[in-house]
Amino acid sequence: MKVGDTVRFSEKAVRVYGFGSDLGLVVAMESYPGPPGTHFYSKPDDYRILINGRLELVGNQITSEGHVEVISESR
């Protein structure tokens, strides 16, 4: 997923996270760099997704478990 993509969440993800819709727009990625002076990352990126007029922070776990699919890629 990348900024500008339109995504669809699974029915389970909508229910568990309490989203008002199953469609969203990726508006930003949140990165978490590791300790200064290293090239390691402490955790994978999270995503800021606009869902039903609300900006939600969605963890990388939801994407890695197949609960979201990209339905329209940005160019």
Task: Describe this structure as you would to a colleague.
Helices cover 16% and strands 37% of the residues. It is globular, with a radius of gyration of 13 Å. The protein has a five-stranded antiparallel β-sheet. It is an alpha+beta fold. It has one domain (6-72). It has helices at 11-17, 60-64, and strands at residues 6-9, 23-30, 46-51, 54-58, 68-72.
Element string (H = helix, E = strand): EHEEEHE
Number of discrete helical segments? 2
* Structural class category: alpha+beta
Mean pLDDT: 85
Strand content: 35-45%
Summary, kept brief:
By secondary structure, this protein is α+β, with helices and mostly antiparallel strands.
Q: What are the main properties of this structure?
A:
75 residues, alpha+beta, 5-stranded antiparallel beta sheet, 2 helices, 5 strands, globular
Topology of helices and strands:
Elements: E1 6-9, H1 11-17, E2 23-30, E3 46-51, E4 54-58, H2 60-64, E5 68-72
Antiparallel strand pairs: 1-2, 1-5, 2-3, 3-4
